[in-house]
Recover the amino acids of this structure.
């Protein structure tokens, strides 16, 4: 029978610097008794065996889209692999993509927004990053890829916590938070975690943008000044003018897109009873009205950028100029 | 133009088929239509349906001629299936995906796995070549042994029997499907972007064919190579290729406009007629000269994924993503 309204297949991206524990996490996910089947896309064949029926090797072929957008890179091999996997979509419930330790997660994420077929049939569920609690601080200093992986993450497993002290853990968590205020951080050992904290996150689902933690917004200047990658957050309790906001954000992401890794916002527009939510990956923005503002919630517009070398003062000025 | 309020219809001639799986390719083997299902089966339709299991997994690419249908699968096999229901594995490499296949003359064929393309002549040794990136499309020149190999950054023209390095036709971006014009003067690719790119082989001149709202997944040269008919828009777009310089500086013809996108096209082998399938399952036959339309299949909400004319033009086979298929014999 034709399956007309088949739901989109969720895709989870696993990233993490070399040796952080990605493959251990992958094998844990696959061996849990969840009764679900996953297609796994891997790059590093042979390092540690992956116990799964459907494992596909990827080549990490990144190319630029010919659309004048220099940061709009996608993974050509993933488009091809997902097209192929979709032909046997009855054989699995979800797709897990394990990237190499040196991979930039952006082209992987952008693939799901740029390719029509991939975007129509699958949905990016979350970027999950495994970080080594002992070595992450060093990697943040010397490895730009490690920084991008933290900046991009929706879920971070702070792994190997048995190798560090509580003080060191708190310090590394602070550093993660300075870069990425959205991600859910879980402390783990040997990548041990409940599977529902990793899969089914809906991190790119506009309906599931609930709140941007006000704690981090109020402490907007609570960051490490030596970090070139960090988060920038702004808020306003005055309603915004959509005719000012949209041109501003579009121009900003066009011109600063390469330096803005991710963005997220919950906005209150003038004379608009509904919350407007948006999220973006570099230059690609996705936004919509979400639901009416509740009577008990303050109509606060909040905006967060994760990026590098952004001019915080100019961003703030630009954002505040959108007030109606 | 015919009166659009009461279009001519031949839907009564349609023999509906329920194949039970998405059709990813379609060809006539002589008079027998062969529907290739994404999940590895080929359905040969005569009085009855004969189902042949060609692959233990998904079919990734389909090619062929009027005697055999060639399929490449994620089981690492290249399989030739014939009208008598026989299926023969021509090649097998466990653990690899056969991304592309192409049929050459006299039983020769080519295929690719990742960056490597292979050419297997009818007799003799297999030749292989590694391209700079994954092969996105593979097509034999209409005559002789030359292959157009699409990849990132352009197309390589590969002469497997020559020692020389393949000739590179450059154009930035990811090239997916590739096709020669019947007179071998042009090579055209479908791109990852919503555009086609072509090269005039005489002087390497570029032809950018843009303006599509979505990616082009189906294209066909009409009889004699006069037009290149394409999907990707809410009408069939036909680029004029009759003149020496190709379609540059000319407007394409737009036929059979609707409010639904064209998902598949097929050119009649003899007449200036195309079949045009849409994302809602509707199929029209359209005369190029005056745009006259005849309805062959009504809409049922499923995307038309493949169309094929019988070699004499006397029948059209229709495949869809849901497996609801059809055969119209005129």
């Amino acid at each position: 029978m034709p399956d007309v309204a088949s739901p989109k297949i969720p895709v989870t991206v696993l990233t993490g610097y070399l040796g952080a524990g990605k493959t251990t996490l992958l094998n844990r996910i696959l061996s849990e008794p969840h009764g679900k089947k996953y297609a796994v896309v891997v790059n590093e064949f042979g390092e540690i065996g992956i116990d799964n029926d459907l494992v596909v090797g990827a080549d990490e072929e990144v190319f630029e889209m010919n659309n004048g957008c220099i940061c709009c890179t996608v993974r050509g091999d993933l488009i091809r692999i997902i097209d192929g996997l979709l032909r046997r979509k009855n054989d699995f419930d979800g797709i897990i993509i394990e990237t190499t330790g040196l991979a930039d997660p952006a082209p992987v994420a952008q693939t799901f927004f740029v390719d029509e077929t991939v975007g129509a049939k699958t949905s990016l569920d979350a970027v999950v990053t495994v970080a080594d609690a002992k070595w992450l601080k060093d990697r943040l200093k010397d490895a730009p890829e490690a920084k991008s992986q933290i900046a991009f993450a929706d879920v971070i497993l702070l792994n190997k916590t048995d190798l560090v002290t509580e003080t060191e853990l708190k310090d590394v968590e602070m550093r993660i938070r300075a870069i990425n205020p959205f991600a859910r951080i879980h402390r783990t050992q040997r990548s041990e975690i409940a599977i529902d904290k990793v899969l089914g996150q809906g991190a790119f689902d506009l309906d599931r943008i609930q709140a941007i933690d006000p704690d981090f917004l109020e402490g907007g200047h609570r960051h490490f000044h030596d970090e070139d990658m960090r988060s920038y957050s702004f808020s306003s309790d005055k309603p915004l003018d959509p005719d000012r906001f949209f041109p501003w954000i579009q121009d900003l992401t066009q011109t600063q897109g390469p330096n803005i890794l991710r963005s997220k916002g919950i906005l209150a527009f003038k004379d608009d009873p509904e919350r407007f939510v948006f999220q973006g990956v570099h230059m690609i923005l996705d936004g919509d009205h979400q639901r009416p503002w509740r009577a008990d919630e303050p109509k606060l517009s909040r905006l967060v950028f994760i990026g590098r070398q952004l001019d915080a003062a100019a961003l703030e000025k630009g954002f505040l100029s959108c007030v109606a | 133009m015919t009166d659009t309020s009461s279009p001519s219809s031949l839907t009564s001639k349609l023999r509906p088929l329920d194949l039970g799986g998405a059709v990813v390719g379609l060809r006539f083997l002589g008079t027998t239509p062969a529907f290739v299902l994404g999940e590895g089966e080929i359905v040969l339709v005569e009085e009855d349906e004969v189902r042949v299991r060609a692959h233990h997994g998904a079919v990734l690419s389909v090619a062929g001629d009027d005697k055999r249908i060639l399929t490449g699968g994620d089981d690492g096999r290249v399989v030739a299936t014939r009208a008598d229901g026989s299926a023969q594995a021509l090649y097998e490499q466990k653990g690899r995906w056969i991304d592309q296949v192409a049929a050459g003359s006299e039983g020769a064929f080519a295929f690719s796995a990742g960056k490597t393309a292979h050419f297997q002549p009818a007799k003799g040794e297999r030749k292989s070549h590694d391209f700079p990136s994954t092969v996105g499309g593979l097509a034999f020149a209409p005559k002789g042994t030359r292959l157009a190999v699409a990849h990132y950054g352009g197309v390589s023209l590969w002469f497997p029997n020559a020692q020389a390095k393949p000739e590179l036709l450059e154009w930035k971006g990811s090239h997916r499907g590739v096709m020669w014009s019947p007179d071998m003067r042009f090579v055209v690719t479908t791109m990852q972007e919503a555009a086609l790119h072509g090269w005039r082989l005489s002087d390497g001149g570029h032809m950018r064919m843009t303006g599509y709202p979505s990616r082009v997944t189906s294209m066909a040269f009409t009889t004699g190579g006069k037009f290149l008919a394409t999907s990707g828009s809410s009408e069939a777009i036909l680029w004029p290729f009759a003149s020496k310089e190709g379609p540059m500086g000319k407007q394409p013809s737009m036929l059979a406009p609707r409010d639904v996108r064209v998902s598949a096209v097929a050119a009649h082998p003899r007449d200036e007629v195309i079949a045009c399938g849409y994302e809602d399952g509707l199929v029209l036959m359209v005369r190029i000269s005056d745009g006259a339309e005849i309805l062959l299949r009504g809409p049922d909400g499923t995307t038309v994924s493949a169309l094929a004319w019988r070699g004499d033009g006397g029948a059209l086979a229709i495949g869809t993503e849901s497996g609801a298929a059809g055969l119209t014999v005129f």
